[in-house]
């Protein structure tokens, strides 16, 4: 990949046989002879011509078609085509647009528009917009869009403008309109610029509604979904990376850089660096001594707990082995490789009753062998570096490559349990017009972290069996379901106005706050169409002799991401180059308890919430306090800082009705 000022360039040279290399080069030559806006049509024509002439099991022909579909999708997402040396194709991306909201929306628009071509989606939209009679009154989705006139009247009469409340989506019938709450949420989600996709795993969906108006229109919507397993800026901040462990061992200091002009040198300057220590040498030693002891104890406990969570009777390992041998570890690795080749066309078992039988299936025996080998190898290196001083023990491991790998395995062992149980991501969050003019987005963001949501999460998942953990252990496992942490990312690199400056005091000594953790560019699969992913799946099936990606528990995280990564690889295209968003995003966090970080690191099993989660009265009262805080802190001030009447008057329901805007 070539990276120049404000431009990224990547060669696009798919791995094809001689016949299709020739066809591709002819296509590239044609690119060089036509205007850029005509090239998309050439790609579509070549796809159609190739599909007409090959059977369904022609691997080389299908690989060529898949490469062309990938190329077409990339052109729709802002990649430009540049022909060099007559037959060499380069894709370019101008990164100066990465901060432009309209440009990002354009990149997302292709898949968003595609979802509105699906018949079931079109029928759903028509159903929601069609006028129907409910309890003797004509109703449509328009009744759930806030009335600008009612808002204006309340403002002018100095009445309470909105009366928000939170509604968990439970597939129930809405008393105000007769629609299912899931359909209400889904309709308004389709109005987002980001394409709508259902999310597997743990989910909570909410409507924020306005009791002050008839039909209780929707102020905003939000949803919580599973947290991503690896997010460097988040993991560094929490203390879940080797780099964060290394940093904790260093003496706390601030580095100051100053520039000074040198006299009699025609303005030349010199730069000096100065380190100012923030703790004494004795204080540093005392701190890292305590930190090292606590950290090593937790890391070793993480490894032991993870090993105990694996069914080992058929893996040739005896529990209680203090010093695992390299021979045992290599045997497990060999078993994994043997089983990996057999793990094809995995099926999901519905309503499992025999967890021991499930764990002996090839897919999970393979997974158990791999995990156990990794954990035992880490334990072996912990034993190798062990000494009387916890500080020297930890420092020695941090300085050694194998030691660092072992620490990372122990950190990940804890991280996986916390991410799967005690952390969630805000995957949808925003206001529905006209409430966006009243800073409804901030209200929705605040309520996503409210005691009601924390309580709902605990109640929903406190008895849920963890399917992967149960299959790994060979017995029923129920994970802890206390919510400790929420994370989210901005869509735009400039941040999110609805998350900025949110600080909500809950008690005298605890404030909920959206905290900026850092910036990530990240990877994603939103830019590849269904036609392209179907072609990738077919190609991989022909290569593997069956399906390795079956959306079955235990195969791995993010099936779509794995499908596209493998799909790009099989056509000879670098996955890293085209899975990056190339639009920096800000990562936010919200700690829901006063000791969230200590809990996530494994230093304590208790969570200190700023409310009594067992008291419905306290949960509701604290949530209402958050609503009132928003009303006074943001909404009321909004009425004084902008011409809110004029803004509301410019709003029409048709501006968000999907039949008008899609």
Your description of this structure?
The chain has 662 residues and is an alpha+beta fold. It contains 25 helices and 17 strands. Strands 7-8-9-12-13-17-16 form a 7-stranded mixed β-sheet, with helices on both faces. Strands 1-2-4-3 form a 4-stranded antiparallel β-sheet, covered by helices on one side. A two-stranded antiparallel ribbon has the order 5-6. Helix 3 packs antiparallel against helix 19 (530-544) and helix 19 (530-544) crosses helix 20. The chain starts with a strand and ends with a helix. Mean pLDDT is 88; it is low at 550-557.
Task: Tell me the number of helical segments per DSSP (H or I, 4 or more residues long).
Answer: 25
Biggest pleated sheet: 7 strands, mixed
- Kindly provide the radius of gyration, computed on alpha-carbon positions and rounded to a whole number of angstroms: 28 Å
The CA-CA distance between the termini, in Å, is 36 Å
Q: How many E-type strands?
A: 17
What's the overall geometry? globular
Strand content: 15-25%
Structural class: alpha+beta
Fraction of helical residues = 40-55%
Q: Strand arrangement, largest sheet?
A: 7-8-9-12-13-17-16
Note poorly predicted spans.
Answer: 550-557
Integer average pLDDT: 88
Describe how the helices and strands are arranged.
Layout: E1 2-4, E2 7-11, H1 18-31, H2 39-51, H3 59-76, E3 80-84, E4 88-94, H4 101-115, H5 119-129, E5 132-134, E6 137-139, H6 148-156, E7 164-168, H7 181-189, E8 204-210, E9 218-226, H8 232-238, H9 242-249, E10 253-261, E11 269-277, H10 281-308, H11 326-340, H12 355-359, H13 362-385, H14 390-398, H15 401-421, E12 423-431, H16 440-447, H17 451-461, H18 467-473, E13 485-489, E14 503-507, E15 510-513, E16 515-520, H19 530-544, H20 559-570, H21 575-579, E17 585-591, H22 596-601, H23 616-641, H24 644-649, H25 658-661
Parallel strand pairs: 12-13
Antiparallel strand pairs: 1-2, 2-4, 3-4, 5-6, 7-8, 8-9, 9-12, 10-11, 13-17, 14-15, 16-17
